[in-house]
Amino acid sequence: MNRIHYLFNTKKERVLSIYFTAGFPHLEDTVPTMEAIQAGGADVIEIGVPYSDPIADGPTIQDSNMIALGNGMSLKKLFQQLIGFRTKIHVPVVMMGYLNPILQFGMEEFCKKCKEVGIDGLILPDLPMQQYLEDYKNLFDAYGLVNTFLISPATSEKRIREIDENTNGFIYMVSSNSITGAKTGISEEQITYFERVQAMNLKNPRLIGFGISDSESFSTASNYGNGAIIGSAFIKTVKGSENLNKDIQNYIQQVIN
Amino acid sequence: MIRVDEKGFYGKFGGAYIPEMLHPNIEELRENYEAIVATKEFQDEFQSLLRDFVGRPTPLYFAARMSEKYGAKIYFKREDLCHTGAHKVNNTVGQIILAKKLGKKRIIAETGAGQHGVATATVCALMGMDCTIYMGELDIQRQRPNVERMRILGAKIVPAVSGSKTLKDATNEAMRAWINDPVGTHYIIGSVVGPHPYPEMVARFQSVISEEIKWQLKEKEGRENPDAIIACVGGGSNAAGSFYHYYNTPEVRLIAVEAAGLGVNSGKSAATTALGTPGILHGSKTLLMQTEDGQVVEPHSISAGLDYPGIGPVHAHLFDIGRSEFVAVEDEDAMKAGIELSRMEGIIPAIETAHAIHALNMIEYRKDDVIVINLSGRGDKDLDTYIKWGNY
Fold first, then answer.
1. Per-residue model confidence as pLDDT tens digits over B182-227
2. Would you call A43 a catalytic residue per the annotation?
3. Which one of B168, B180, B277 has the shortest CB-CB distance to A53?
4. Positive or negative, the Cα torsion across A110, A25, A18, A50?
5. Are B107 and B134 in contact, with CB atoms under 8 Å apart?
């Protein structure tokens, strides 16, 4: 059974997913960061594949991408680092990356490697649903990879239904009309949007991301979805950390307790 | 037939690879733009602004001295005489009317050389709309006069400080700004790049150039078709505009001129078709300068308007099927061509445009061939670069 399905079948509330950038702050931090995220108590790990032009990301994640690339991170390197990680990590792991580096690597080869090392799902923010259905769905299915789509306050109800129909992992609910790390806290307007989507009774679980940074925003998000995703705030925590393992665990503990 | 298909592809290139957050905006445009553009109301306003505000039709000018030197009949399509100094305004006039019809209140745009930024700031002033321009920090330094023109026109300039701090990064920032305010904002993309329907929409607004070439050449030469059309290509809007009505007339050679920078293989170049491979940039599949790992390579050209690692998907397609011929002109040769045009015809061209002039030295043609060069912009904005180069 896919670990993402197992997770949401056994835990419906306060699911925490942590995004980090592979190869950041140092090239070899990838797997140690994943171990610390799991030890801290997060439920899902999102590995960010760094890219030179991440158009949905704000300065914090852009900066971590540039540093990771400067450190020599690439998909080739990442898959080498990930060999054997499943002996230590049992939580679901999702790859998040822009399409171009993956296309250059080769989509099928990418899927094959994901399966080999033990990746459970994908988030490809610039892969549109139509293109996914026409070109890649069969491939992802063949390699057991669950694909996740984003929705935002601007997504129409009809489109949300289509997305719900065409995914079988979870829906990534972007909390506001924004890039990552642009806003903190949750406003009344956002609550209205959360309630609107909640009332749709979608078949897929929902994780709320963008603007989630601490215990309070995590709890609020969890009231309206099955949990939340933290990215930029986590990157800020690891940037300049002298004790990655301790700082990551402390941060996650603060968020979930 | 060379044309965009319903999914936004030109052959293998194009499409709309955008984050879901932008899906509603792109859908809104895709669903509405053709219907709006087809209305008489839109066309009346568009045509009247092109005539009375932009100053169209621009002349098709027979360059006697250069014709003599090069042994061909050389015509210049004088887009440099458009209001604001380049062809860019053809597109911004079209898009601002569209934005108004879509009920948008705020305009954002990216700019490289500043010509598209100025053209956008100009139409925003004309229509009383709020205007924010994203421009690479490096370009802000090298195109100072255009920055001040935009400010005088009431636009806010936001520097793009990521990556190479040039056009690519300005485009990233504009896309991010659109994600942050998708409902009230229209993004006026300045070239034939970006997600469908932008490449075709921009090309159509620019296609007034080739439409005019047809009847003007008929008047002057008794035929609509030149033997060749030459245009420079960064993203490729002036090239698309001057090629548009000739895409499907194979006897007209289409010659696209890229910036070779310090040399195609110098590592400091923007010659996309020479160096690029298929990839995705700014929402479309196209040819793109990138590393083996799929990271976008930072380009170089002395001209800010050609300093772009990609190319519009239509040009990638024209290249792919062999319809366009591509040449790459180095910085130094472009500068010399700019001086040559100034001395021989009394026209100081934009450095982008100077690349197209130099191409006359690189292509084969028969004596007395009729060659139209699209003179996309004038050189006022580039005086600092000419002065710094100094070799005149």
1. 889 999 999 999 999 999 999 999 999 999 999 999 999 999 999 9
2. no
3. B168
4. negative
5. no
SS3 A11: coil
Mean pLDDT of A91-103: 98
What is the model's pLDDT at position A179? 86
Candidates A119, A61, A75, A179; CA nearest to B179 is A179
CA dist., res. B340 & res. B320, Å (int): 33
CA torsion, points A105, A106, A108, A111, in degrees to nearest 10?
Answer: 20
Binning pLDDT at 50, 70 and 90, where does residue B143 land?
Answer: confident
B305 close to B171: Cβ distance less than 8 angstroms: no
Beta carbons of B294 and A100 less than 8 Å apart: yes
Helix (H, G, I), strand (E, B) or coil at B327: strand
- Please give the ipTM for the structure prediction: 0.93
Q: A176 to chain B nearest CA, in Å?
A: 8
Question: Of B77, B88, B104, B336, which residue is the catalytic one?
Answer: B88
* Secondary structure (3-state) at B233: coil
Q: What CA–CA distance (Å, rounded) separates B257 from B63?
A: 20
Strand B324-330 relative to strand B370-374, pairing: unpaired
DSSP state of B310: B
Rounded distance between C-alpha atoms, residue B91 and residue A57, angstroms: 29
Question: Which position has the token pair 């797997």?
Answer: A31
Beta-bridge partner residues of A114? none
Q: What torsion do the CA atoms of A61, A63, A64, A70 make, to the nearest 10 degrees?
A: 150
The chain A residue lying nearest B169, using CA atoms, is: A53
Does B31 qualify as catalytic in the annotation?
A: no
Distance (Å, whole) CA B21 – CA A179? 9
pTM of the model: 0.96
List chain B residues with CB under 8 Å of A59. 162
Is residue B272 pLDDT above 80, yes or no? yes
* pLDDT tens-digit map of A151-209: 999 999 999 999 999 998 999 999 988 888 877 778 888 999 999 999 999 999 999 99
Q: List the single residue in A102, A104, A150 with the smallest CB-CB distance to B20.
A: A150
Show residues of chain B in contact with A125, CB under 8 Å: 19-20
Nearest chain B CA: its distance from A252 CA (Å): 28
